[in-house]
C-alpha cells in the first residue's frame, strides 16, 4: 500500500513536470503569435503558409495542457510567468525549434519514471507530435536536417529543468513542488561549430582540478577535456542537436558529477551529412 502511494505521488510529480513544460510552450506560442502578424512573418522571409502551421502547433500545445490538466485534476500545476528570448519572427523560429526539441528529450527521459500504461501511451503520443513539430521547423522552415542521429537524446529531469528555467521567471506558490533543480547556466559562442576551439562560460565552483565537457547526443556523450582557461575543442564528428554539460569525470553524465549545463547547440547538416 505504501509503495503504491509512493509510485502514485512520483507519477503525479512527473505528469506535473510535463504539464509545466506544456504550459511553457503554450504561453510561448500564445504570446508569439500575438506579437508577430502574418505580415511580420512574410517581411522576415518566411513562407506565406508558415504562420498557419504555428497556429496549428499552438493548438496542439493548448490541447496537451488541457489533457494533462484533466488527468491530474486538482493536483494540476498552474502556468508560470516567462521571459522568452524571441524579439522578431526569426528568433521566434529558433526558440520554437529549441522548445520542441527539448520537449522531445524531456518526454523520452521521463518515461522511465512512469508505470501506468495509460500514462506511458499518452506521453508517447505527445512525444511523437513534439518530434514531428521539431522536424518540421528545422527542415521545412530552416531548410536543415529534420533529425539528428539514429537515436534522439533523452535528458534527465534536472537537465531539462536547467534549460527550461532560463525562461521561467516565477511560478505560483500553490504549485506542487517538483523533484527538480537547475544547474548553473552554461553558454557557448553563438557561432560555435564542430572542430572549433571555443571558450565557454559558466558560474560554478568546484574542487576538481580537471573538468570535462560532455557533449550529449543520442544515447550517450562524447567527452573531451576542458582547459583551465575554459576553452574546449568541439568534436568534429558531432551533428544535429547536442546538449553540452560541464562535468568532473571523463565518463557517463549523472547529476552528481554535473557542474553546469546543459545548454542547447544545433549543428545543421545537409543531405550529404
TrEMBL record:
It comes from the Eukaryota. InterPro entries: Ferritin-like_SF, Rds1. Pfam families: Ferritin_2 (PF13668). The lineage of its organism: Eukaryota, Fungi, Dikarya, Basidiomycota, Agaricomycotina. This is Protein rds1.
Amino acid at each position: 500500500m505504501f509503495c503504491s502511494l509512493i509510485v502514485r505521488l512520483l507519477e503525479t510529480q512527473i505528469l506535473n513536470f510535463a504539464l509545466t513544460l506544456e504550459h511553457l510552450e503554450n504561453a510561448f506560442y500564445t504570446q508569439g503569435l500575438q506579437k508577430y502578424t502574418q505580415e511580420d512573418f512574410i517581411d522576415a522571409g518566411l513562407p506565406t503558409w508558415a504562420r498557419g502551421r504555428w497556429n496549428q502547433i499552438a493548438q496542439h500545445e493548448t490541447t496537451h495542457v488541457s489533457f494533462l490538466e484533466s488527468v491530474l485534476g486538482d493536483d494540476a500545476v498552474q502556468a508560470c510567468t516567462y521571459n522568452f528570448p524571441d524579439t522578431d519572427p526569426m528568433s521566434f523560429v529558433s526558440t520554437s525549434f529549441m522548445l520542441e526539441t527539448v520537449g522531445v528529450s524531456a518526454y523520452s527521459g521521463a518515461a522511465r519514471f512512469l508505470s501506468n500504461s495509460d500514462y506511458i501511451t499518452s506521453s508517447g503520443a505527445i512525444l511523437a507530435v513534439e518530434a514531428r513539430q521539431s522536424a518540421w521547423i528545422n527542415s521545412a522552415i530552416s531548410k536543415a536536417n529534420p533529425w539528428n542521429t539514429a537515436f534522439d537524446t533523452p535528458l534527465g529531469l534536472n537537465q531539462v529543468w536547467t534549460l527550461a528555467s532560463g525562461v521561467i521567471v516565477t511560478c505560483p506558490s500553490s504549485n506542487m513542488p517538483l523533484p527538480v533543480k537547475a544547474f548553473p547556466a552554461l553558454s557557448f559562442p553563438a557561432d560555435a561549430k564542430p572542430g572549433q576551439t571555443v571558450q565557454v562560460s559558466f558560474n560554478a565552483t568546484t574542487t576538481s582540478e580537471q573538468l570535462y565537457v560532455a557533449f550529449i547526443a543520442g544515447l550517450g556523450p562524447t567527452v573531451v577535456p576542458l582547459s583551465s582557461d575554459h576553452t574546449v575543442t568541439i568534436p568534429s564528428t558531432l551533428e544535429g542537436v547536442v546538449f553540452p554539460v560541464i562535468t568532473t569525470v571523463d565518463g557517463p553524465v549523472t547529476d552528481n558529477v554535473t557542474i553546469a549545463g546543459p545548454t542547447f547547440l544545433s549543428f545543421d547538416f545537409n543531405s550529404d551529412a
